[in-house]
Amino acid sequence: MKKITDINQGDLLTFKASDEKYKVLLCTSTIKDKSPQYFTFAALTYNDKEKPTTEKILNCDFWGIGNTRNDYFKYSDIQLNQMWILHPEIKPYFLGSYGLLIWRKDFMKFRDNFEFIGNLKIVDNLDKNGNGGMKANDWNFMNDFFTNKITYFLTDKGQQTFKLKAIIKVEP
To answer: What average pLDDT score do residues 82-111 get?
Structure first.
């Protein structure tokens, strides 16, 4: 397995948790131009004993919310229509993700637990159109969160699952 040395928006990272099932993170944004550098991820619903492929991941959901219309971090009309076709229940709102923030210096300490699967072209500002997030700077936390707490915790925070295909960039 190749060591992860850099992370970019749209990168899919998988890890095998203590329940022997693979979980997946989707990088929604990065800050690399100033210190401290960090990555923001959305949690995906992949939870299987079989290692994920990009094709399988495309059929997953992500944790987030249909949030208020945001005039600062707008999506294109084409992208909004794609979201609303797949999730008419959120119209006229935007989709946003719940952010798992990991400082780069902390990620480097436990990066060997992750494997790069691929990259998806996703909408910009997905995490900025969400309504919450938390630090996830520790391997024990990540493992426990995805194994034991994700559904209860995120549901309690008002988050729901949405089709990943709703946030894939649509070319005009």
So the answer is: 94
